């Protein structure tokens, strides 16, 4: 997750990776389990970058890496990264915690 700007009222915008969603969709489509390690190996990207993007822990998002991942998943940039407000992000985290 990468904070990129402010909304009216002081709320922050965050750039959030949808990589885990894309990975799940690809796994279902191909009827096999695909690990993040496999993604790193197949794309030639460092596993720390792949894990960091998947878990939204990167402080900076490498453009070349995102482009490579978009090619791997067959998606556009807007499918890989999404702008969300603080509130939307917190609500999605809470929903995931409840579902677990």
Question: How would you concisely characterize the structure shown here?
Answer:
The chain is α+β, with helices and mostly antiparallel strands. 57% of the residues lie in helices and 16% in strands.
Features:
100 residues; alpha+beta; 434 Repressor (Amino-terminal Domain); three-stranded antiparallel beta sheet; globular
Structure description:
- The structure is a single chain.
- The protein has 100 residues and is of the alpha+beta class.
- It has one domain: lambda repressor-like DNA-binding domains (434 Repressor (Amino-terminal Domain), Orthogonal Bundle).
- 57% of the residues lie in helices and 16% in strands.
- It is built from 6 helices and 3 strands.
- The chain has helices spanning 19-30, 36-43, 47-54, 63-73, 77-80, 86-99; strands at residues 2-6, 12-17, 81-85.
- The protein has a 3-stranded antiparallel beta sheet with strand order 1-2-3.
- Helix 2 packs across helix 3 (47-54).
């Amino acid at each position: 997750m990468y904070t990129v700007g402010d909304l009216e009222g002081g709320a922050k915008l965050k750039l959030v990776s949808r990589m885990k969603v894309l990975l799940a969709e690809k796994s279902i489509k191909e009827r096999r389990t695909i690990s993040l390690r496999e993604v790193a190996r197949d794309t030639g990207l460092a596993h720390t970058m792949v894990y960091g993007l998947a878990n939204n822990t990167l402080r900076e998002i490498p453009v070349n890496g995102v482009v490579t991942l978009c090619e791997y998943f067959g998606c556009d940039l807007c499918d890989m990264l999404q702008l969300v407000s603080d509130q939307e992000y917190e609500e999605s985290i809470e929903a995931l915690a409840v579902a677990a």
